[in-house]
Every structure is written in structure tokens, then in C-alpha cells.
Amino acid sequence: MADSLPGTLGPLLKAARARLAAAAVADPALDARLIVEHLSGTTRTQAIADPECTVDAGAIAAIDAALRRRIAGEPVHRILGHREFYGLRLSLSQETLEPRPDTETLVEAVLPFVKATAERQGQCRILDLGTGTGAIALALLSAVPAAVATGVDISQGALATAMRNAGELGLADRFQVLKSDWFEKVFGRYHVIAANPPYIASIDIENLQDEVRDFDPRQALDGGVDGLSPYRNIAAEAAGFLEAEGRIAVEIGHTQRKEVTDIFSAAGYMPAGVFRDFGGNDRVLIFELTKP
């Protein structure tokens, strides 16, 4: 049985950090602070200025339960129920992939094209395949007021989460969702088709970090036998939904640049950009249709 937690903020933070550190959690100081601040309704400033402020018993119990979940391996943002992405606070659910900083690379990569299209045509229509939390589409909408987006997902739960996020961010009037298996029920044409598809080979799923394997939805990770099945689906069908001179932007696994480029090249696309993530790995590819 773990020691009981102190009832004042400074000692509470210290005890939470010590508990996580003893369990070899990767970043105990950050995770302890996130948990304590979220569940006690306090801030970092309060912890510094008034470390002896009292935390009520209900919050202490919730913090204790959250620390136990973290020690058991659950990611801290799953426990909190939200994560920040591109400066936006996004709610998570069991049906959504937890958006990660590497995916911000896709937003940055395609953003100049979205802005230019909106300025030139008065609107930029975006299709976000496998939208999950809505992260990619909502980040682009937040940056470009003339953009509109449709988020596609096979999971009704994911779509509900994405729509909730759009509402909380004040973007619901420019965002709609569609339940579809890739392009199955999609209609219309878009200036940008974006996707962070599942790209892990099925055989490699069990080798992922516990926090990913055990808590991210399997269908958002498993890219088929070689991890490339979603790219084949997108490359084969996207042309029917892409405006002339439109762009396709896809996130990839860091070793998949050649294979994914070959798939799109064979389907009539040419590369229009390669972008690296914060770790210097190939992470995003942009394609356009080859001109006749």
C-alpha cells in the first residue's frame, strides 16, 4: 500500500513525483505536475507562491487514483483525458489515437498551401482521413479562417470526439464528420487530402512501447502485413476526390519514404515535398497529380 499523500500543494507535488520516480516512470516531475494541477485545479504559480495551500480530500483521492493508473502504465494524457496539439487542447477517447508532436509536422508542411489556396480561391476544402481527435483538420482550421474540413473515420466514437473538439474550439461551423472506410462514402472534391494513417506492420504491433500498444486503438496503428496498405488505398482512390492542382499530405513511418513514394508514383502522383520531424526523421510526404 502506497503512503498516503499530503494535503498541501508543495508536499503533495513532491510526494507524487517521488511515487512516480520510484516506479521508474520516464518523466516523473512533469507527469506529477500535470496530474496534480489538473485534478486539484491549481497552477504552477500557486505551487511556487503558496506551497502550503490546502488541497481538498476529494482531489487527493483522485490524484492517488491517477498516480496508480500512471504507475500501471497508462499514459498521462489518457488519464487527464486531453492533450495539447498545435496549441489546441484536444479531448481524447478510447477510440482515438493520442495526437503526438511529430504529427504537427504534417500541419506545418501543408499549411502554406492551405493559406495560399484560401487566399486565391476564397476557400480551401480539406479532407482529413482517419481524423481521430480531429487534430490535423482542426489545427489547419484554427490557422486559416477561410478553410473548411471534413473529418473521416471508421469509428463512430472517434467522430464524436472530433466533433466535440471542434465545438470546444469554436470550429464546429467549419468542420463536419463522416463515417466512412477511407473513401467509401466520401463525395465532392478537396484542395487538400491529409492523413496520418496506420503505418505499423501487423507483426510489429507487439513490439511497440507499452503505452502505445496497450492504450492507442489497434485499428489506428495496424497498417497491414507490411504497414503500407492504407497508402495503397489512398493512392488508388484519391484522384477522384482531389481538385486540380490539389495536394495529398501523408504522415509516414521514418523508414517508409521510398516505399510510400513508389506507391504514389505508380498511381500517377509526383513528390511535392519531404518534411522531417523534430527528431530529424522523414515524417511527412506531399504529392500532387502528375500533369498530363
Automatic annotation (TrEMBL):
| Catalytic activity as recorded in UniProt | L-glutaminyl-[peptide chain release factor] + S-adenosyl-L-methionine = N(5)-methyl-L-glutaminyl-[peptide chain release factor] + S-adenosyl-L-homocysteine + H(+)
Q: Which residues bind substrate?
A: N196, P197, P198, Y199
Give any Pfam family that matches. PrmC_N
Q: Which Gene3D superfamilies match?
A: DNA helicase RuvA subunit, C-terminal domain, Vaccinia Virus protein VP39
> Which InterPro entries does the record cross-reference, listed alphabetically?
DNA_methylase_N6_adenine_CS (IPR002052), HemK-like (IPR004556), N5-glutamine_MTase (IPR050320), PrmC_N (IPR040758), RF_methyltr_PrmC (IPR019874), SAM-dependent_MTases_sf (IPR029063), Small_mtfrase_dom (IPR007848)
Q: Where in this chain does the record put each Release factor glutamine methyltransferase N-terminal domain? A: 12-81
Q: Name one GO molecular function term.
A: peptide chain release factor N(5)-glutamine methyltransferase activity
Methyltransferase small domain span: 123-203
Keyword annotations of the record: Methyltransferase, S-adenosyl-L-methionine, Transferase
Task: Supply the EC number(s).
Answer: 2.1.1.297
Query: Which residues are recorded as binding S-adenosyl-L-methionine?
Result: G130, T131, G132, T133, G134, D153, W182, N196
- Any GO BP annotation: methylation
Q: What class of enzyme is it?
A: transferase
Read off the PANTHER family from this record: HEMK METHYLTRANSFERASE, MTRF1L RELEASE FACTOR GLUTAMINE METHYLTRANSFERASE
Please name the HAMAP family in this protein's record.
RF_methyltr_PrmC (MF_02126)
What protein family is recorded? Belongs to the protein N5-glutamine methyltransferase family. PrmC subfamily.
* Role: Methylates the class 1 translation termination release factors RF1/PrfA and RF2/PrfB on the glutamine residue of the universally conserved GGQ motif.
Annotated protein name in UniProt? Release factor glutamine methyltransferase
Which species is listed as the source?
Answer: Mesorhizobium temperatum
